[in-house]
Amino acid sequence: MGDNIWAMQKLLALFLVAAMSTPAAVKIEKTSYKGWPNCYRISNGAVELIVTADVGPRVIRYAFVGSENIFKEYPEQLGKSGEKEFQLRGGHRLWVAPERLETTWAPDNGPVNIRVDGDVLEARQPVDAAGLEKTILVKLGASGSRVEVVHRVRNATPWDIEFAPWALTMMAPGGRAITGFPPRGKHPEVLLPTNPLVMWAYTDLSDPRWSFTKKYLMLRQDPAVAAPQKIGLFNEQTWAGYLLGSELFLKRTRAMAGRAYPDFGSSFETFTNDEMLELETLGPLERVPSGATVEHIERWSLHRDIRIPSWTDEELDRVLAPLVE
To answer: Mind listing the domains of the chain with CATH numbers?
Structure first.
């Protein structure tokens, strides 16, 4: 009898250890959010995302559970729908490049179709005014903060269209964007240019919100400075971070060397004004036949207790290299 009790206790202990080591399941549930009755919350207990169904496709929130949204929100635009003009609203959205009012700025102010397949949520917009069907798929890992975000754009017009998928994430004010240049080399071993650094007509590199090291580019969001700033670059291993307080948002994508990219060859762009800062990645520019779909994938993560005491290559390498890799 004693042996049986001991065996049962051992089995129970093993079961408890296994249960404690099993990652929390991803839960996707319908919810309301800031005036929109039809939203979907995706969570694994550590982080959560909110995807809107009344407008979009949009990921309006990404945060540690119980923490502030690291994405920008425009309070006066939340909970609304049906506007005739495009609304920034905040969060993460899908556009097409190059930027044109008639295609890029087509409104996304109506309901989207939501489909949940296991731990994957798909938000698909009906064909918009430009003749494009945009879809965002969100897959959160069972533990930690890693998210795979798949962007798809289908050409629903009767003719071929040239465009590139463009994924834009609007960050809450008060932080700093960080991105890396492609690997550096030395003269005269490397004589040819390695990558573009792209300016807009309003880009002002003397603006103190910009800072540069040999390996990194940084842009600080300042609510007291309204003048917009933007820059673009190409990096085969495209990545960008946004440090807000001690929380760091990272997004990564793989760019394809040798392919044509919009905006003088940019796979990454960052923009800021007094309201927010955007981290933007782009896919290659291509002529998309009628009925065909292009796809662009980003991978996100959130990190806590990130401290960068000095904005030097050494400190940035120490903090960011393990996270980006």
So the answer is: 27-324 (2.70.98.10)
